[in-house]
Amino acid sequence: MSEEYPFRPAVVATAVRPPAFDELYAEARLRRRRRQALIAGVFVIVVLAAIALPLAPRGGQVIPAVPPTADAPRVSRVLALSTSTVVAVSYRECDSALAVTTDGGRTWSDWRFTPPPATCTGPRSPGPIEILPLDEHTFLLTREDEQPGGTFQRHQDLSVDGGRTWRPLAETARDVTALPATATVVDCGANQCFGHGNDIFAIDPSAGTVYRLTARPGGLAITGYTAAGGVLWAVLNSGQALAWSTDRGANWHVEPTPEMHGAEGVFAADADHAWLLYLTDDGKPPHIRYTTDGGRGWQDTVTNLPAAVIDAVPLTGTADGALLSGGWVSRDGGATFTALPIPPGPDTPVFSAGRGVMVVQSGAKAYLTGDGDRWVTVPLP
C-alpha cells in the first residue's frame, strides 16, 4: 500500500549534505538505444543523510495478456498522472508492456503488451521503444522499426482502452490545425516526451477523442510541453528554442535560445508565468529562465542547484506555485532551491517530472510528491 512521509526541513538543514551526482547517462540504462541526433539525459541527484530519516475500446491488434515466450516484465520507467494514478512501463527486447494503478500502488492492472514489430526476429531490440500516457486509458507507442539497409522508420500506435488493443496513430487520432477548446492538452514533462517526435496531443474528456496538432513550432523536436491559462508552452530540441501559442496551437511564437541545452520540461502557472531549467557550457549550476508577462519578456538567473556535468534537468510545479526539480523545491519562483530528503533505495534514483508530480524511481518502489512537502511511496508491480 502507499505511504506518505513528510519532509522535515529542520532535520534536512542539519543532516543532509549537498547532493552528489552519480553516473552520467543513468537514464540510458533504462531506455532503449537512441539512434537519433538529439540525446537527452536525466538529472540524477542522490541525497545522502548522516542520520536515518523516517521514510516518509476500439478495434485493433489484440495483444495477449502474457506472450507465451515472454519473460516476466521488469519495471523500466515510472510515469505519474497524479500521486495516485501511476503507469509502470517495461521496455523489453521486441515489445514493451505497461501496468496502471489508480490507488497509489495498492492494486495494479495486469501487464498489457504492445505489438512487436515484424522486423524483430532476434534477441535484440530493432530500435528505441517509448510509451507516453495521454491519460490513464490512452497510451501512445512510438518505436523505430529497422528497415533494409540498416535505416530506421518511426512507427506510432495508439491504445484507447488501457493498452489492451492498439491501432496505428494515423487511424485513431484526429488531426487538427488548432486544438479544440473542449480538449485537455496533455502535459508532457521531463523524460516523457523525448522520442515521440513533433506532435502535441489533447484529449476530449467527455468523448475520449484524441487530437493531434498538425501545426509544429519551428519544425523542431518537442522535448516538453504544457498548457495553462489558454497558452501552450513548448521546449524544442532540449532548449535550443522556446515556443508558445495563444490560439490553441494555430500560430506559434518561436524564440531561438542557442545558449541553452538540457531543458526537458516547462512549467506554467497561468497565461503569464512560465519557468524552465536549463544548462549552459560554462560549468555553472543550472539556470532558470522565466517570464511574468506571457513570453513578452524573459529573465534568467543562476540557481543554487549544484553544478555538475549532466545532460538534462527535470522541472514541474505544484498547484500553489512551488517548483520541483529532482530532490529540490523552490517556493520563491526559482530564486533559491532547498534540498529534500530522498528515501533511500538500492539503486541510483531516476527522476521524471510532469503533471505537477516529481517521481523518484529506485528499486521496487517509486516516491512521488505533488506538493514538495511529503513523499508518497508507491510499490511497483
Automatic annotation (TrEMBL):
Q: Which domain of life is it from?
A: Bacteria
TM ranges are: 37-56
By its UniProt entry, which InterPro entries does this protein fall under?
A: WD40/YVTN_repeat-like_dom_sf (IPR015943)
Q: Which UniProt keywords apply?
A: Membrane, Transmembrane, Transmembrane helix
Q: What is the protein name stated in its UniProt record?
A: BNR/Asp-box repeat protein
